Amino acid sequence: MVTTRLDLDRIRAAREVIDPIFLDTPLYQPDALGRELGCAVSVKLETANPVRSFKGRGTELVASELAAQGRTAAVCASAGNLGQALAWSGRRRGIDVTVVASRGAPAAKLERIRALGAELELVDGDFEMARARAVDIADERGVRRVEDSLDIETCEGAATIGLELASDASSVDTVLIALGGGAMATGVGYVLKTLSPGVEVICVQPHGAPAMTRSWHERRVVTTDSYDTIADGVAGRYPIPEVLDDLLQVADDAVLVHEASIVTGMRLLLERAGLVVEPSAALGVAAILEDRDRFAGRHVATIVCGSNVDLDAYHRWVGA
Ligand SMILES: Cc1ncc(COP(=O)(O)O)c(C=O)c1O
User: Taking every annotated instance into account, which residue ranges of this chain make up the domain Tryptophan synthase beta chain-like PALP (predicted)?
Assistant: First the structure.
């Protein structure tokens, strides 16, 4: 039995709270993509919703809990997608949301956070600096700080993807999951290891932001001094110990991929599947590209987890 901070009954109950617009997302096989990669590839499409990423599943839980407690404000640090999702979920429930982000985050993400009505504070520095500033704001204002991957609701929301995979993807051998703070990997991984223990769970991070993957391999928190990757959604330097403990229970492997493979993955998702994705959502395809023999002939599912991308950069990367 897999024991983590997560609980199957709570994850099942979460489905009743999350706006259905985020649930029961398509799972299908773009044949041309599979032919290109030499294995059967299913994509779980988490981008066709108002915030264009899977993060709405978790923020729906957070915001409904805040509303039930009569709270009217919350703050979070975000690389860009959690902030949009919390802004969306908060706005519908009368919760004032403040998002702290790096000035270097993709402009499209920052614009969308503002457009969704959140207060946006930018820091000069990376995501970890934004995290530190969010702690200060929460203390100053006495409001709830939403800490992605540590707050259990963010993991439970992501875990509902696992419920859908477990019921719809019976023939899948392996699920590839982009790894950032770990909410998605620990959530989806927990459900798969509980309901479909034969399915292999592989986490994917860029070489340029390897802290959590290194931590998984060394079974202790390993931090880095900096990160450098186009996959902004998964970039961090300080893994959260509780999340690492959970990841150690549910992941079969954690691999690192190069930036060039991420770019090729984005291009293939466009050309062979008609999908515009942000770099973090191409990590799974990048992992297949870097180890074709490992996946040859298998049925691999990858979660296409976000499509918030600056168009100029996107065109530069994919040459489209
Ligand atoms: C598009 C995208 N992919 C992957 C991740 C990583 O997810 P997690 O932080 O749950 O590991 C994020 C996080 O925000 C994201 O926005």
Answer: 23-306
